[in-house]
Amino acid sequence: MDWINGLFAIPSALQAVVVLSLVCTVGLGLGKIRVAGISLGIAFVFFFGIAAGSFGLQVDEQMLNYCETFGLVIFVYTLGLSVGPTFFGSFRHEGTLFNLWSLGVIFLGTIMSVVLSYAMNVPMSSMVGILCGATTNTPALGAAQQALQHAGHSGGPAALATAVTYPLGVVGVIFAMIFLRKFFVKPSDLVVHSGADDDHTYIGQFVVLNPAVNGKTIAEIAQGTHRKFIISRIWRGDEVIVPMSTTVLQAKDNLLVASKREEVPAMEILFGKQVNCDLNKEQVDWNHLDTKVESRVIILSNGVLNGKKLGQLHLRDAYNVNVSRVIRADIKLLATQDLVVRYGDRLTLVGQPEAIDHAETFLGNSVKTLNEPNLAVIFLGMLLGLALGTIPLDIPGMESPIRLGIAGGPIIMGILAGAFGPRLHFIAYTTRSASLMLRKLGLSLYLACLGLDAGKDFLDTVVRPEGLLWIGLGFALTVVPVVIVGLIALRLKKFDFGTICGILCGSMANPMALGYANDTVKGETSNISYASVYPLGMFARVIIAQILVMFFV
What we know:
9 strands
């Protein structure tokens, strides 16, 4: 029995790995169980961690802190990396609105904390800790404790209140989302609304009937209009033409044109009559449209080409092929000459089979190369993210500088690497499966450590006279703002439910709730909205904690 005792009871690096593996295994297994159609998914790792910690299963404190930090950093960095390519595009469209809804959650919770402090006769020195625990924001707690010390008060009550309310603060957002989905979410709310609709291409067939373009080259037509379009092939009688910029259009030519969906009426005015056929279904077999020209999807895996503009590749001139569209992270982009291509992009080439073969050699098209994880980028990104998170930011009126922290720095660095890496010829690409695995691994480690740490003192703090009151107040501060704002957002029909979940989770700085949302809602909209609101929400929480101390203590 000594070897069993060594595995579970004697603190060591081996014991830490064994205990965390046990907590993650059991928690993930129990998370698959559905009760009344509801499962907690990865969140059960946290619950089992609390249970294990309450029954005396402990891990060395330094090992626990290391694993918790490492897990959280892996999760937030890979999350930022995955949403980076579409982050700024979505932010231009709805990012400001995302943050306004997030600030609504934050300010509603703040007002409630002030009201409840007076109504329930709870000192603000304790209430600010309750608010920090309810919103699972430890940086805000640190700022509040420093502000309390400057004001001549002890930071102990705030820390104790945070410890008591933190566990239900973590799961409260999940309960709120379950409540909303059970009673208010309609099937139409679950349909994903893409924030990048203007990037989606539309394939249409047009007959040249406009005398203004008859006899002109494609280059002359493109220069004479601000509309963006790609002519991928031309049918002229029985002849199939792969068009060049110098190709002259003739009356009655049938054109296969790729453009943005909203540009279709303009394309009909520019060229002439649109042929009534749906070419935008996923099951369209382009190679059966004609047998003389082939359409083939090629993966860009030549790292040298990463970050270059499509026009710089000279595919049309050098290989006599056209690129009709570029698919990136399931988003179809119009293949304009100024489009910056990224490692892992899927290019739809149109041309003669031999010409496409030559272009394929140039572009790479190596799935094996693509599937090899670029771990150096992951570790370098985490290094830079942690460095960014430690930079002190002085804000006028604040007693102490604010830092992005171990969560804020890596997620911002991940977003920047994913968005701008190709422009610096920095290959930040990871396959979807690798990204999901890293995210789930990191989040599982983080939740297991969080549960074990909370579990060791959970029962002792709950039985304190004020413990149950603090837990109730904390749970209200977690659930009520989330439910109210979520319900209003649902009623206004501004976003799909996945996007709303991401906003709510980001405003509460709650990665576990985000993990639950990802397990239960399709699409990546929750990740994008979470990453959009997280940085500002975290700053707001830190500043608000200090303001509450300055004015109400």
